[in-house]
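From the pipeline queue, job 12 of 40. The input is one protein chain; the requested action is below.

Action: predict structure.
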Amino acid sequence: MRVFKYLFFALLFLVMVFFAYGFFFLDDKVQVSRSITIDRPANKVFKAVNSMHHFNKWSPWAKLDPEAKYQFAGPEYGVDSQMSWQGNEEVGNGKQTIIESVPNEMVKAELYFDGQGDGPSWATYQIKDTGNSSEVSWVFDADFKGNILNRYFGMMMDGMLGPQYAAGLQNLKTLVEAQPVYDFSGFSIEDVDSQNVLYVSTSGNTNEDMSQVMGDAYTKLTEFMGANDINFGGMPLAITRSWENSVWEFDAAIPVDLTSLEGDTGDIQLGQTYAGKAVKYIQKGSYDLGEASYALLDAYIEESELMRNGEPWEVYANDPASIPESEILTLIYQPIK
């Protein structure tokens, strides 16, 4: 009986030591951090981490349970973007939501894990732009708020979570560095004023030579202007109405200082161009560069997370007959919200 008594007090002593050590010497707050250098600008990295909807593209846990279930809520990018999951023992169940987002600098998410109490943890993606590359840190923070058992669990957190964070950052590096690098130096965002224009609607197949179609349209306009003593108010432009299946429907237009038209004008009309915010791209060189320029415009719109607000138009800023082809300037405008 005395032996059991000694064992009881010994066990009680060990329990007291266990809780005393946890209370006085172990921290409530635990942080795990891993870093990597990604050879892409900060905006590329920021877009990849600023969405819970796309987290599994580089998550270190996505392959651990191919049968896991995921639900997504909130916006695709930014604050309130959310992912919930239910998986096996390795993946568990939980939810993470973006609660802070500073463009090209930081994204912070709040995490809840089933079976680990009611309080949240936090994951922060810190991005430092170093020019053509970025230093990226993935930081996990937890606050156990006096829970002694969780404090002991926190002692193992770096060894358990650190390798997963390192693997995730490597996945992120592979994902981001696989994306093409664009030269957006010719782009700007401007507020444009409306212009009065004379225009004629026409169309053509962009797989064929468009010079005849455009030449006929602008000849019709200039002949009408000459016959009616109307002066140019700016350089010619082409306003897109639709572009499907290689058929470009557009208005060939010339700015004028007119507010009304009188008499029979045939198919020549007076109108106004768009006024408001627009992306502007300066294309320098042959008109044949148009397809590549519009592809670059699409990439700029997507990477800048802009919303279109109508169809684009082109301004032919100089006379191709009087300059080398390499110096031809075409100003491409895309209305945005």
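Job complete. Confidence is low (pLDDT under 50) at residues 12-26.
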